[in-house]
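In this section we walk through a basic example: taking a raw amino acid sequence and producing a predicted 3D structure, encoded as discrete structure tokens. The instruction is simple. Fold the sequence below.
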Amino acid sequence: MTTVLAASLALTPGVSTLSTTNSTSPVEGTQHSAVTVIETFRAATGTGSGAVTYDPKSVPLGSHVEVRERTSDRGTWFELRLEGVQAERTFGAHVHRKPCGTDPATSGGHYQNVTDPVQPSVDPAYANKRNEAWLDLTTDAHGRARSQTSVRWWVRAGEARSVVVHEHATDTRPGHAGTAGARLACVNVSFL
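The resulting token sequence is shown next.
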């Protein structure tokens, strides 16, 4: 037997949509869920909901972001879409532990399935695309881009609160693993 619980709002910028589906699953106690956040980037003037830009040249005021998360028995799928940002550029992007704020550092470090005891984490044993959610993307001539990733784990409740867009692609070298330069923008997401 399947039970479906859903709460949703219109899919317009500035509105977060939350759909949660609870169902009988081959994996005891697995909750299936889906989260979609669609926002317009604005100036970083406070904390809370929304999306903020710290670098309006790279991520202009009024550009758009969409983040999706979906869980299943096999793990979690993430998607990031940007529109109206700097054209023909590669950005790093990661799920972060804390919400966005006026200071780019407010969003904390990357969410890790297995947390590195040494923070900030730059050890490739922990800072890698299997243990973190990396969503690097390259924009087209119109400033649009889309990326997605899947991992074989679920986000722990309340421990992942945002997606941060960084200045360049994510580094994988020891001592630099997981780094992607300055934090250019941030969108708040309540991952399930």
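Looking at the output, two observations stand out. The chain is about 0% helix and 40% strand. Confidence is low (pLDDT under 50) at residues 1-13, 15-28. In the next section we compare this with other chains.
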